[in-house]
Design brief:
Elements: H1 3-8, H2 13-20, E1 26-30, H3 36-49, E2 58-62, H4 65-81, E3 91-94, H5 95-105, E4 117-119, H6 121-134, H7 144-156, H8 164-167, H9 171-189, E5 192-194, H10 197-208, H11 210-219, E6 222-225, H12 233-243, E7 248-253, H13 268-271, H14 273-276, E8 281-285, H15 293-303
Parallel strand pairs: 1-7, 1-8, 2-3, 2-6, 4-5, 6-7
């Protein structure tokens, strides 16, 4: 069987369109249970085997380490089936792991050495606690965790220590405005950064250093992002900077499944994708392989109350299934 037949054999018509649309910006609205991971996996294989794109020129980004690992396994398995060697593989990872890679390779431009440490949540809060004590601020009243939250939120929004007070106001925010610059200075002195810096500093690097930006744009002219509805400002800027030269960017997501607004995700990133790029091709994956008709109808009836959503018509071949029952639990 030809490689193209293997890649496309188990796909429905809309999935095939998404896989075969390799040039220019592509927006794939993938409803729940619509096989989006298969589309991304097969699209990577299609780029390599049918379009002759080197795996080294493909970047795929997702949100969790687990999702990235599963995608990597599926890509390697499919490439093996297609008799493609795995000596060169696409770069598949989370925003944070890819940011860490970029920063280690360009550490000198952000004032670090390549062997920098990455502080976890406890490390960050302990450092903030030490700074609060040094500033004679009562840590029983002002919790380090609260200050850490605002610093993290600022980095998600690409707000620097110097401009924090221009964007945030309030009692805790005013204290954070004092601590944030000291915190960043301490991190730098320890050759360390925190989780938020992995994207915040990467975006600063790409936006301020044209040579580094150009290097990565040429290295990864083909880019795919999963769960695009969950991107925050920093992640959005990362994607836009990297893709602005060749614009071969494919984003996959579903504005009906945006649940991370509390951590800075902006649903407008996927809803406004067609405004950010010219000649965007839109594909809607509407066939659901997971749920029965009654479940889909009920979910649709609820989500349709959101007047800002992109219209989608989910359907399934699974039949109506059992009626939905309602269980009301005690408080």
């Amino acid at each position: 069987m030809a490689s193209q037949d293997i890649i496309l054999a188990k796909l429905n018509q809309q999935q095939k369109i998404a896989v075969e649309s390799t040039e220019g910006p592509l927006l794939v609205f993938a409803g729940a249970g619509s096989g989006k991971t298969r589309v991304i996996t097969n699209r990577i294989a299609y780029l390599i085997t049918e379009k002759g794109i080197s795996p080294k020129n493909i970047l795929a980004v997702t949100f969790t380490k687990k999702a990235a690992g599963e995608m990597q396994e599926r890509v390697l398995s499919l490439l093996k089936e297609l008799n493609v060697g795995n000596e060169n593989t696409p770069l598949i990872g989370t925003f944070h792991s890819i940011g860490a890679l970029f920063l280690r390779n360009n550490a000198k431009y952000v004032g670090l050495s390549p062997n920098f440490s990455i502080f976890d949540t406890n490390d960050s809060e302990n450092l903030i606690k030490d700074i609060l004590v040094e500033q004679n601020i009562d840590i029983k009243q002002i919790k380090p965790k609260a200050i850490s939250y605002f610093i993290s939120a600022a980095k998600n929004e690409m707000v620097s220590p110097d401009t924090f007070s221009h964007h945030y106001g309030g009692f805790l925010e005013d204290i954070t405005a004092e601590i944030y610059p000291l915190y960043q200075k301490q991190l730098l002195s320890q050759n360390a950064l925190d989780f938020g810096d992995l994207i915040y500093l990467t975006v600063k690097l790409l936006s301020e250093n044209e040579r580094v930006l150009g290097k990565y744009q040429d290295m990864y002219p083909y880019m795919m992002i999963d769960e695009y509805q969950d991107t925050n400002t920093a992640q959005y800027m990362f994607a836009k900077l990297l893709s602005q030269k060749y614009q071969n960017i494919c984003v996959v997501g579903d504005d009906d499944q945006g649940i991370y607004g509390w951590r800075g995700a902006d649903i407008k990133n996927i809803q406004n994708f067609e405004k950010d790029f010219e000649n965007v091709k839109v594909v809607k994956l509407e066939q659901n392989y997971r749920s029965t008709g009654n479940v889909i109808s009920a979910a649709t009836a609820v989500i349709q109350q959101n007047t800002l959503r992109v219209e989608k018509a989910l359907w399934t071949e699974k039949g109506s299934g059992n009626c939905i029952s309602v269980y009301q639990a005690n408080d």
